[in-house]
């Protein structure tokens, strides 16, 4: 069998890679050794950048149709328990807006034309599978395992075994490893840099009716137990399919030691759930208990010849801010258009080198951020209300009594705790981490300007059209339709957006593209629906121009009108496409 791209692994990364390649008309084969999608209650938050990508490829509405609406997951909450008979049981310690919900909604909607959503892996993977199979019939194959491969004569020759034990030879021009690092990375011998297995977690997936006790709209509930410190740090997550407090399924994450019976013994697991929630007679249907290690590693290389690593094969991150899955989807988005450009003949093979140049620093950025969130969670978990490891168990009720007291002391305790809880915005309000990833080197032409200084807590995003940054979102009107500037970008080639006084760029761009053989769309919105002039908000002024890549990243910017715009654009396109 022959194909252009062999994608190994049908997790979120591999499935989205398949969908993006289908959009771009690239023949491929996706194989997955599992017989069906994963049944894990993890990887649930789909952030704004991922939903922008899904919008570009026509699948965002599929996720909004079944995912949690913002009003059902736009908060996080710290509680003692959900219920119980003790004086401090069922008490809320702190609550904050999250993920663009609540009071964040207005400011976050200025930054992006989409909202985030929540859909756990147990539901997102089957949805992605259905879309991938619809767009590439017969090319998505579960129960197929990569046994081995060699690279020879400009091709990958792979041996694949199906569920019946029969083997097939697959010849492909590229192998995209999206298998979580199980098969391809060990053979390549690529070193993983960072901290492997630095934390251990038990995750319990269960069904129960918590509607009498759960707060509506709190996607994540963190517990700080008044009596038992071993129950603190547990996290309850809605799993749907109904959202809010009527969610039928839940995930509970907690830390266990190697000998803790709650890792393996059914009755101990059920007791841990009931004790953490404070509901001693809760009826529970247990689905799955997973014990897993948290890694924080980044591959030393993302490319080895015609093999390209993406998702967890390239980087493994702590489960914080949704950075694992979202970074993986964005890897696939970056890689798909570059493979398509090379295979369509309008870019040279060296364009594929920019995948590592661009995505590896992002992998490290997100990995470091996620590790910081885990460290901060340890701080917030108990020290927010004054508890430290030195506080004996018998003194814990005193701290909670002081915290809830209707007194000057209680008000001070709550105000101080609020300052500590507020640091959690690095996890649930990290808009700049979602949208502010920047490529300093790669398929772009720098213009000599400096990037905006990032907000240290990641909660303030400053949009910019500086080359290497995502195109800023501005609502505009084009052909009588209200659209985002991101909607103007074609996934099939470059897009030139010129200011209202830059008409000379239009003809020059088309002539340059024809001369070089690069697909290019030229556009200039007519009006902006609100606010200052769109061209000035994009940083180009009336006569300037942006060259935007298929992945909605700015490749080049010019703020005036050069003497020979056609020659300037031709030079830039040649440089970016490595012709």
| Average pLDDT number | 93
Which overall shape is indicated by the principal axes computed on the Cα atoms?
globular
Q: If helices are DSSP runs of H or I spanning 4 or more residues, what is the number of helices?
A: 16
- Calculate the terminal CA-CA distance, rounded to whole Å: 30 Å
Helix percent reads: 25-40%
Residue share in β-strands: 15-25%
Please summarize the sheet with the most strands.
8 strands, mixed
The CATH level-2 architecture of one domain is identified as 3-Layer(bba) Sandwich
Q: List segments where confidence is low: pLDDT < 50 over at least 5 consecutive residues.
A: none
How many beta-strand segments?
Answer: 25
CATH-derived topology of one domain: FAD/NAD(P)-binding domain
The CATH superfamily name of one domain is FAD/NAD(P)-binding domain
- Radius of gyration (CA) equals 25 Å
Query: Which structural class is indicated by helix and strand composition?
Result: alpha+beta
CATH top level of one domain is Alpha Beta
Textual characterization of the structure:
The structure is a single chain. The chain is of the alpha+beta class. Among the domains are: 2-67 and 119-193 and 296-370, FAD/NAD(P)-binding domain (3-Layer(bba) Sandwich); 441-577, Glutaredoxin. It has 16 helices and 25 strands. Strands 1, 2, 7, 8, 9, 10, 16 and 17 form an eight-stranded mixed beta sheet that branches. Strands 5-4-12-13-14-11-15-18 form an eight-stranded mixed beta sheet, sandwiched between helices. Strands 22-21-24-25 form a four-stranded mixed beta sheet, with helices on one face. Helix 1 runs parallel beside helix 8, helix 8 runs antiparallel to helix 9 (353-383) and helix 10 packs across helix 11 (408-421). The two termini are 30 Å apart. The mean pLDDT is 93.
């Amino acid at each position: 069998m022959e194909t252009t791209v062999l994608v190994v692994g049908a997790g979120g990364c591999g499935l989205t890679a398949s969908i993006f390649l289908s959009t771009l008309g690239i023949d491929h084969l996706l194989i997955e050794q599992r017989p069906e999608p994963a049944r894990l209650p993890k990887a649930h938050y789909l952030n704004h950048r991922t939903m922008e990508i899904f919008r570009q490829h026509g699948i965002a509405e599929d996720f909004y149709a079944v995912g949690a609406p913002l009003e059902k997951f736009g908060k996080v909450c710290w509680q003692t328990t959900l219920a119980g008979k003790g004086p401090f049981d069922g008490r809320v310690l702190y609550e904050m807006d999250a993920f663009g919900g609540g009071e964040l909604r207005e400011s976050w909607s200025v930054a992006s034309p989409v909202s985030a959503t929540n859909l756990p892996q147990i539901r997102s993977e089957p949805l992605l599978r259905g879309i991938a199979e619809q767009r590439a019939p017969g090319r998505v194959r579960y129960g197929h395992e990569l046994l081995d491969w060699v690279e020879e004569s400009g091709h990958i020759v792979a041996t694949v075994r199906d569920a019946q034990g029969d083997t097939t030879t697959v010849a492909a021009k590229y192998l995209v490893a999206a298998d979580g690092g199980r098969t391809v990375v060990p053979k390549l011998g690529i070193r993983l840099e960072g901290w492997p297995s630095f934390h251990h977690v038990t995750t319990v997936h269960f069904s129960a009716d918590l509607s009498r006790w759960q707060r509506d709209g709190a996607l994540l509930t963190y517990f700080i137990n008044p009596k038992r410190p071993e129950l603190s740090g547990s996290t309850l997550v809605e799993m749907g399919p109904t959202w809010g407090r009527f969610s039928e399924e839940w995930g509970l994450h907690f830390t266990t030691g190697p000998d803790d019976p709650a890792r393996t013994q059914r009755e101990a697991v059920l007791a841990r759930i009931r004790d953490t929630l404070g509901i001693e007679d809760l009826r529970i249907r247990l689905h799955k208990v997973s014990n897993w290690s948290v890694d924080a590693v980044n591959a030393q290389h993302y490319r080895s010849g015609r093999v390209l690593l993406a998702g967890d094969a390239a980087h493994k991150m702590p489960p914080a801010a949704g950075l694992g899955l979202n970074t993986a989807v964005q890897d696939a988005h970056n890689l798909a258009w570059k493979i398509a450009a090379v295979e369509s003949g309008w870019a040279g093979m060296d364009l594929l080198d920019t995948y590592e140049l661009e995505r590896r620093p992002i992998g490290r950025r997100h990995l470091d951020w996620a590790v910081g969130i885990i460290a901060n969670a340890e701080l917030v978990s108990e020290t927010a209300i004054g508890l430290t490891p030195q506080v004996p168990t018998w003194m814990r009720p005193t701290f909670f009594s002081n915290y809830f007291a209707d007194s000057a002391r209680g008000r001070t305790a709550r105000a101080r705790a609020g300052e500590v809880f507020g640091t959690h915005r690095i996890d649930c309000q990290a808009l700049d981490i979602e949208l502010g990833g920047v490529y300093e080197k790669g398929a772009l032409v720098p213009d000599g300007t400096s990037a905006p200084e990032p907000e240290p807590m990641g909660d303030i995003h400053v949009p910019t059209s500086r080359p290497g940054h995502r195109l800023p979102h501005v609502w505009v009107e084009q052909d009588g339709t209200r659209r985002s500037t991101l909607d103007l970008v074609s996934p099939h080639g470059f897009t030139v957006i010129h200011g209202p006084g830059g008409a000379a760029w239009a003809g020059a761009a088309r002539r340059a593209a024809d001369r070089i053989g690069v697909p290019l769309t030229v556009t200039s919105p007519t009006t902006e629906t609100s606010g200052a002039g769109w061209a000035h908000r994009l940083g180009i002024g009336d006569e300037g121009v942006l060259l935007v890549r298929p992945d909605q990243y700015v490749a080049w910017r010019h703020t005036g009108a050069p003497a020979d715009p056609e020659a300037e654009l031709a030079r830039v396109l040649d440089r970016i496409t490595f012709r």
